[in-house]
Structure formats: C-alpha cells, structure tokens
Amino acid sequence: MKRTLDKRALQVPMLERGLAVLEFLAARERGATIAELSAALGVAAASVFRITRALVKLGYLDRNPETKRFTATRKLLAMGSPRGGGGGERTLAECAREPMRKLRNAVGETTQLCCLVDTEMVILEQLLATHPFKYSADLGARCPSYSCAPGKAILAFLPQDELEALLDRIRFKRFTPTTVGSRTAMLREVEQIRNVGYAVDRGEGLVGVHCVAAPILDRHGFPTGAITISGPESRVAESAFPAVAKLVVEAARATSECFNA
Questions:
Q1: Per-residue pLDDT tens digits of the chain, which is 261 residues long
Q2: Radius of gyration of the chain from Cα atoms?
Q3: pTM value surpassing 0.85
Q4: Separation of alpha carbons 87 and 208, rounded Å
Q5: Do residues 236 and 215 both lie within one domain?
Q6: Which one, of 6, 3, 243, 7, lies nearest residue 106 by Cα?
Q7: Same domain for 114 and 140?
Q8: Does one domain contain both 116 and 228?
Q9: CATH number for the domain that contains residue 207
Q10: Can you give the residue range of the structural domain that contains 151?
C-alpha cells in the first residue's frame, strides 16, 4: 500500500508540470522551444522533453520540425469551448459554425467566435473574408476585452457585480486614439451596448480595422461568447455599422438558440 501511495505522489508533480506547459503555450502565439520552456518554468530540460513528447502524442501540442517550437493545438482550444445545456451538449463552436458561415458570406468580412478568459478575449473559431485583402488572427490569439468589439459585447451583458469586479482588474491602456481609456468611459459604453444589443470597435485595437460584435447568451441571459466581423475601415465604414449589426445579432441569436436547445 505504501509503495502505491509513493508512486502516486511522484506522478502529481509531473501532472502539474504538464499543465504548466499547456498554460504557458496557450498564452504564446509563437510557441516555445524546450530550452525556453525549461527557463520560463524552472523545469529541467529532460523533464520538459518528456512532457512535450507526451502532449504531442496526445494531440495537445504541435512541434515545428524546422524551428523546434511547440504550440498549442485546436484540441486544447476545444476543451475550453462552453457546452450547451441541452441533451446534445453541443459546444459553442459547433453551434456557431453555420451562423458564422452565413454571416461571413453575407458581409464578406472575416467572422470570428470569441470567448472571455479573465479580462481578455480569446479567438475560438474564424472564417476568413472573401476579399483578397482581409483581416486575420491566429486561433487562440488574445486581446484586452475593453479594446475590441466582442470583448465589449460580452462585458456589457455580464451581471453588474461581475462586470464591476472585472473592470477593477483591468489596467486601461490606449493602443490607438480611439481605445477606451478608463473605467468610467467603459461603463458609459456598456450602457450604450445594452441599449442597442451590439458593440463596435472603431480601430481601438488596430488603426484602420473596424469590428461589429454581438453576445451569445445562454438560457439565463449570461454571455458565453460573442460573434464578430472584422474588416478594414474602407469596407466596414461607421455608417454601415447598424446594417451590419442586424446580421451579426441574427448570427449570435441563431447560435444561442442552438446552444440552449
């Protein structure tokens, strides 16, 4: 009996190190080498080698043979996708794919499914624009929730106490002249978003890129994610926001219905 307990005790640190590797790589779009992982996590290179080899075999990591860098795969992203409360237990991504396809075809711009992780937005799914020149981002990419349309759409529909607590953790930083620069300004915009049912981004994260987003609500009215379209200001002009928003809101509504079925 004592030998079994000792064996389990030895396995726990390895599990913790494996999770540390996954968490580290999930936040790094460029990935990392074994040496970088070892230095960042304070784990021996030999242990990192064994952990990453196992995670690659299980499908949670990819390894670029040329750069020798490891990156998190979509399998890890899928684990974080919320699941509906219906009998089918379909993931949010599964429910969003068809509405996203219809939206992308109607608008012609890059369409994304995003969710909130702490104070940041994470991209779960993406359909690229039909135009030769298009906006794109890596799956798993993150950005501050206050500087993008999907982030603001989710923030606006959080319960007030959760919204207040989240805003307390944000350190507002201006990325462009139009970025929301303070807690007070964000609260003012939240009220506007609640009134119209959608959020916009006037080049707040990247100059020249406009976005329109709407929240995906569960059966209790809680925002589990958001659908957004993104494109250059020349094609997604501010004057077009209301018309585009109708299509985005419809896509989010269709996703919500599937997710809550």
A1: 444 444 444 445 778 888 888 888 876 768 899 999 999 888 889 999 999 998 888 878 889 888 999 988 766 655 555 555 554 567 888 899 999 999 999 999 999 999 988 889 989 899 999 999 999 988 888 899 999 999 999 999 999 999 999 999 999 999 999 999 999 999 999 999 999 999 999 999 999 999 999 999 988 899 999 999 999 999 999 999 999 999 999 999 999 999 888
A2: 20
A3: no
A4: 43
A5: yes
A6: 243
A7: yes
A8: yes
A9: 3.30.450.40
A10: 81-260
